[in-house]
Amino acid sequence: MDLLTPIRISALSSSSQQNDTPLLTAITKPTDSPETPIAEASISQSISDLDDILSILRSRPSAELLSRILDLLTTNVQPHSIYDVRTPTPKASQIVNTLLEITVPDFWNFLAKKEKRQLSECLRSVTGLGGIVSRLRFFSKNKKDAPGDGSLDIQIEELFDLLHSVLRSKDFIHQIWEWGSHGSANSKQTVAWKEYTSLMAGGKLLSVAAEADRLLGIGNEGAGRWIGNEGLFISWLGQEIAWASLEIDITNEAEWKALDSIIVRALSLGHRDEFVENISYPHIRPEGGLKRLHKLISPLPAHTKHTYLTSLLRKLSLKHLSISPEMDQGSEWWKEDASRVSSVAGLIDTLMDDDEDLRILVVEWLAGSQGGGIGDPIGIRRALVVVLAKDAIILKGLFEKSLQQFSDQLWIKHAPILQQEVNAQILLLCAGYLHRQIPSFMTRMARSSIFLNGISNRIGATSERARFLGMVVGESFSAFVDKEGSKMSFGVHETSTQDAKWWKSIPSIEDTVGSASGLLSSSELIVKKKKKQPTIQPKTRMTSVIQVIEEVKDDEEDGEDDDDLMPYAKPDSDSEDSEEDAADVVRKKDTTPVYIRDLLSMLRDTESYDRQQLSLGSAASLIRRKTAFGKELSDHAVDLTSYLAGMHDKYDMDKFQEMRMQALIALVVSLPTTVGPLLAKLFFEGDYSMGQRAGILSAIGMGARELAGFKDDDLPLSIESAKGKSSAELFPSKRLPARGDAIWSKDKPKTPLERITGTLEQLMIQPMAAEAADQAAGPNILKVRTFSSRIEVEKKRAKPAENKLSRVVAEAFFFPLTGRWWAALKDYSGRGIHFTPFLLTTFLKTLGIILHATGPSAPALPQMTNEIWEVTFNLRHTGEETVLEGLLFTLLTMLDLNSENGVGLARDYPKELIETQEWLGGIVVAGKGGSKVLGLASGALLRTEAIVKEFQRRIMGEVVRDG
């Protein structure tokens, strides 16, 4: 602008023509005072371009002038128009930087809602987001250097508020595309979109916001903003991508490609399940939404599709098919959840339409190394198989792959039993559909060599469960092709049980492909979303469950004039009310819950300390009382277990961990076949801290011991019992590095599992030490022994108790844990939270405790032994001493249980025994690890050598006898 700016031109009246007043009056702006505010009287009736706006903004205008400028920049502004600051241009970048550096610090906290919304709209661009992130990073760095500077806190708070306002707009991604890539694509627009993708989906904005949030919060907890929370931010990003895909033109290939680039980057951020859920579910309700979802997913690279499909199937199974119908409902048990299976199949079928890559990935997911959802109920496999059944060629290919895997002798011996069960379910499902579609094909396959050899291999397997699956599949196939009277029958009790009847009824399942809209039939799955994003509370585990997003009118537009309302004056205080407020008096106190639903309701009331304490204190006893009374406990077992597993100590309650653990143990003991697999699933798939996961394993281990008849009442379940003060050391959420933890954790109390394993180690090692001492003391004939009468010995001998654990240990505890561990190992390549030394050690010790509690006479011991061998050989080269200690404890427990049948163990696992003997010998000779590791290794080595020597002696005796 010129230094002289005319503001008024007027004609002089006759009375004033005598005066010498000049016709033009000018205001001079000193060149040495760039920050002098422009007088309001100097506003021109028209601001010609962005140069004028930039000059005014740099001169720190008044609030009225700023309001007019914001009106010019936001009212009816189109891309590439004269006042456009959202399309990336040099002049727009200068204005955006001026707004961030001058306007926001000066005016943000004083602007009205409308003006804040206008200012946020000016910054809703790639340039604006980049500027906000840069300033947040700058202030965060200064905050680290000067933690006590309160002015930095104010500026960071303002930027967070601004960023929240910028991101809150619906169709945020679509707007960025419209303004940043308007018209035909060119190199500048491509670069701008790549920068935006890097900011939003590459983690730049999230990492900077999370660091700033942490600096503002107390310690490492953070102040609790959703923008800095990884899970909530990724869920929001998924929603915005869904909105964009629902709004854009179906023929705009450039924007579809741009959305795909964001998806590819976002899937690498983490929280994939929540991201995939928030992308997929909003497409279910709108007309044509699933077709748009198919168009969104179809162009993705194959590895990205694989990630998307895996997460989607996991979410669908967890939300809609997580509970299987009861097995005792007859041959038509599958009709109970047929509608849910049909809806899931409808969603998958729409995604697979004309997409060969997804179809191949579905087949690989069912028959590949992931095992078709190990540990998940059969519902998700039913949905996928009925979709594939539309193409007989693909279904035949899946059947042949599953049959080849089912019959492979090496796979039968080494695969986790849960994976073998999943494979058998897929095989039976495919067989049922193929028999109805192509009977001749099933006749040919039932008489093929691969099938007959597979049945023979399974009948000769050492695992009882593997033999059971072979017999069930053999009889089911024979029922298809053989006539009455010549059908295969093994004539054993196992094939006539209720479990066997359930397996044989699988081929009769006839699901259909329905409409995906059935997934939204439950009211709790339909969540209305306002434009305003939710904030989170610190120390609260948040899960984003937003499936359908419906636009709701923003109340802020109607409340723009709220600032003009005059509040009522505060009433005068009354001295009579100063002693006690009637609103604070609790006239009706809560009573102890008598129903499980009341217990669950009280546990969820996190705003009341009394209700939390009362419900936790009575939870264990109520659960045990309700065990034998109807189905009340079983109906609420899933919700109650899930809530207790993730419960937080909000009020720093006395003995919180002990009461929570007692309730979980009571659930495990009352419903082992339901709660055991559920806890194993929550440990590997739930969103829990390390302390909560360790608590889950402790509940499984101690519940299994109680089922076996062991008494652990004297073991402290919480730090309060162990040390007498409130703390979280017993189940820590975070651990120091291995070296530091070894130094600082010496005096800390042991967890219940550590105390149990310490006792068991002594019980197993002391007899071997005593035997070695006897050998060193001389021949037994020289020792003096005192003999007791038979009557006295019988009086002191404890009566044997029924081991209830041995009947359910395989399906309830051991196989769900090992099966999901193998699945997590394949999914995360050993780099997930489950493989941290602390949790991996706890997991291994839990397996050892369950194995010891089961006893040597359990029917599933051979298969459990096989899985322990597999885990041992996978982890034997670990460099973590604590993990090696847990592994050696579990191995020693397995060898101790099999010592009574050492010959059978050597006959079935000769290669494993020799390799283990060499490995243990190497540990002992090298002196690897501390004294505890060497003691366990020496004990396991003595057991191994004893078993090998006994087997060799038996073999030599048979050779001499036969010779």
Automatic annotation (TrEMBL):
One GO cellular component term noted in the UniProt record for this chain: cytosol
Record Gene3D superfamilies: Telomere length regulation protein 2, C-terminal domain
Domain annotation Telomere length regulation protein conserved: ranges: 593-704
Pfam families the UniProt entry points to: Telomere_reg-2
Residue ranges with Acidic residues bias: 552-565, 574-583
Spans annotated as Disordered: 552-585
Name listed for the protein in its UniProt record: Telomere length regulation protein conserved domain-containing protein
GO MF entry, a single one: telomeric DNA binding
InterPro entries recorded: TEL2_C_sf, TEL2_Regulation, Telomere_length_regulation_dom
